[in-house]
Write a structure and sequence with these properties.
43% of the residues are buried. The chain is elongated and about 90 Å long. With 495 residues, the chain is of the alpha/beta class. The longest helix has 16 residues.
Length: 495
């Protein structure tokens, strides 16, 4: 039987921790707690105290997590075992100290029984899920023990409660799936035997969520306040299943933060992993493997893929990961085209380069370079999560791409550059007329976007627009960031 280690007991300010507060009633005061805008789903800063959601499979931890952070980050499904890796978010409510919340996978304490009889989505991952939960609990300020009010008290709940008690952490028992006051007494009666303070909630319908935020905040150590979080570079991992995205994150973070398995689709949620390297803060977003939509028949995988695509668009830099042993697939090409079309800052990582001969690796690099001919600014790195090859180059290159995305060029310098570019190579004559260029301005950053005002944009061919982009990249030192070039006609055509 698996078991948690024992943790030292922490002092807390609340009488909830000592079991005296009990059930908290709702009222107008509770409703005021939801006046803040939703949290954006960043990883929990290292210095912010956090509370861990723990429970057996399918008690509603992920739904509760989404409610608390006010964002649908965790994938929720009636199928047990959807959540495997731990997910992090920040709970912010007006009048309460901010704190982190960590969602964990459903814990089955008896691994042998789980393999034979447990939920299908968990089989084979019991030990990994438990390891992730233990890692989260190691530094937790408190525990939110989630149980199912509809199912009642089960033996697995009692076993898990015993392990939580041995850890000595302040604990609130959250009785989920209680849909109103009329059934509170009935659904909560048998959970009093656990010896924890109880609070009935409904994560699905929002019942008592404000009260839950207050009770969880009361579990925090005395004087817990949110420190100013340093800006962290947000990096999204994207690629096909089993390309080694989770392994790369573990190697870069220096810990087994993500569950790694040969089973395709192990990672389902888009999971934030925060870590520091060389005095700089990073947040890696591990995403589910992206397959062709026509091959996706599972609803959970569909949600996972959608979350992966969404995460790539919101990251500062996306790391498109290829499997060196598989080569460049059509799906890889589709992902490249999508990132380029959306002008997403990205690099290509050819992972598992240690598993193919040097000649095959050189040929693969050439193939990737040719495939990326339409966006030649994208850097390509051959890496190996297993041996560490090329890993030291990833983070500095990501910072460089991000810095290039923030470049702002003064208008005077832009127009001097335009004159130089036009002198070097004039626009071609189209229909006996050469387009005149009047001035150049930068419309925005992230990515750098430049607007040329010309006499007639229709007389500037695409090939010359590409020349303008190459010239500006060279002049301004923008080698790897995406760039937008717009041509705007500054006259009205005669009818």
């Amino acid at each position: 039987m698996y078991s948690f280690g024992t943790r030292p007991k922490k002092q807390v300010k609340s009488d909830v921790a000592s079991g005296q507060k009990g059930i908290v009633s709702t009222g107008p005061k509770r409703q005021a707690a939801l006046s803040q805008p939703p949290e954006q789903g960043n990883a929990v800063p290292d210095s912010l105290p956090y509370i861990v959601l723990v429970g057996r499979p399918n008690v509603g931890k992920s739904t509760l997590f989404n409610r608390l952070i006010r964002s649908n980050r965790a994938i929720t499904h009636d199928r047990p075992g959807v959540t495997r890796d731990r997910m992090e978010g920040v709970v912010r409510r007006k009048g309460l100290p901010s704190f982190g919340i960590v969602d964990t996978g459903g814990i089955t304490l008896d691994a042998h029984a789980a393999v034979a009889e447990g939920p299908e989505g968990i089989r084979g991952f019991e030990r990994d899920i438990l390891t992730q939960a233990e890692a989260a609990l190691a530094g937790a300020a408190a525990v939110a023990f989630v149980v199912d009010g509809r199912d009642g008290l089960l033996p697995l709940d009692e076993h898990l409660a015993a392990h939580i008690r041995r850890m000595g952490l302040p604990t609130l028992c959250v009785v989920n799936k209680v849909d109103g006051e009329e059934r509170e007494d009935e659904q909560m009666a048998e959970f009093h035997s656990l010896g924890f303070p109880l609070l009935p909630v409904s994560a699905e319908h929002g019942y008592n969520i404000n009260a839950l935020c207050e009770d969880l905040a009361a579990l925090l150590p005395e004087g817990a306040v949110e420190p100013p979080a340093p800006p962290a570079l947000r990096l999204a991992m994207l690629g096909r299943p089993n390309a080694g995205k989770s392994s790369l994150i573990n190697a870069l973070a220096g810990e087994e933060r993500m569950i790694v398995s040969d089973v395709a689709g192990t990672t389902r949620d888009s999971v934030d992993v925060r870590f520091s390297r060389d005095g700089r803060d990073y947040v890696f977003v591990d995403t589910a493997g992206v397959r062709r939509r026509t091959r996706i028949t599972d609803s959970v995988e569909k949600y996972s893929v959608n979350a992966a695509i969404k995460s790539s668009t919101k990251a500062d830099v996306t790391l498109l990961t290829l499997d060196a042993t598989e080569g460049v697939s059509q799906q890889d090409k589709r992902l490249m085209d999508m990132l380029d079309t959306r002008k997403t800052p990205f690099m290509v990582l050819i992972n598992k380069c240690d598993l193919i001969p040097p000649a095959a690796l050189a040929a693969l690099k050439k193939n990737v370079t040719e495939t990326l001919a339409f966006c030649g600014h994208v850097p390509i790195l051959a890496v190996s999560a297993r041996t560490g090859t090329g890993l030291k180059k990833i983070l500095p290159l990501a910072r460089k791409i991000h810095e290039e995305c923030q470049v702002r060029i003064p208008t005077g310098r832009l127009n001097r550059a335009m004159e130089e570019v036009l002198t070097r190579h004039q626009p071609p004559v189209v229909k006996r007329v050469r387009a005149k260029f009047f001035y150049l301005t930068q419309a925005e950053t992230a990515p750098p976007t430049f607007v040329f005002f010309v006499s007639d944009a229709g007389r500037v061919p695409e090939s010359y627009t590409r020349y303008l982009e190459r010239a500006l990249r060279k002049l301004f030192g923008i080698s790897h960031a995406p760039m937008r070039i717009h041509l705007r006609s500054s006259h009205k055509k005669k009818s």
